[in-house]
Amino acid sequence: QVQLVESGGGLVQAGDSLRLSCAASGRTFSTYTMGWFRQTPGKEREFVANISPLSGTTNYADSVKGRFTISRDNAKSTVYLQMNSLKPEDTAVYHCAATYPGRPRYDYWGQGTQVTVSS
After folding, report:
1. pLDDT at 1
2. Each residue of 70-113: pLDDT tens digit?
3. How many whole angstroms separate alpha carbon 58 and alpha carbon 32?
4. φ and ψ at 17, to 5 degrees?
């Protein structure tokens, strides 16, 4: 079992930057693939990025590639999402999630943090 708590959301203007953090507690953080997802009302949850546990291999949605960077600090049991050049369409509740490598389904989810980008 792992508990996830996101922070760092807020209200910003288009073009600004934000860094989201997700602190994990529970079992060994370094064994999990960590991901960021986002959701807006009336839409399905959207994959944003993920990072593998040890090698740090990353994957991004096309919509954020080149603007967002996912990273992790296994010593601090924390995963980050650096978001640059934010756009109004990035407005959403951002959730971090954890899964074991190779599993397509994420087993553990945080409550989410709201990001609002004004034009």
Report:
1. 81
2. 999 999 999 999 999 999 999 999 999 999 988 889 999 999 99
3. 13
4. -125, 155
Alpha-carbon span 16 to 87, nearest angstrom: 8
For 53, the token pair is: 């546990």
**What's the rounded Cα separation, in Å, for the pair 78 and 72?**
6
- DSSP states of the chain: -EEEEEE--EEEETT--EEEEEEEEES-GGGSEEEEEEE-TTS--EEEEEE-SSS--EEE-TTTTTTEEEEEETTTTEEEEEE-S--GGG-EEEEEEEE-TT-SS--EE---EEEEEE-
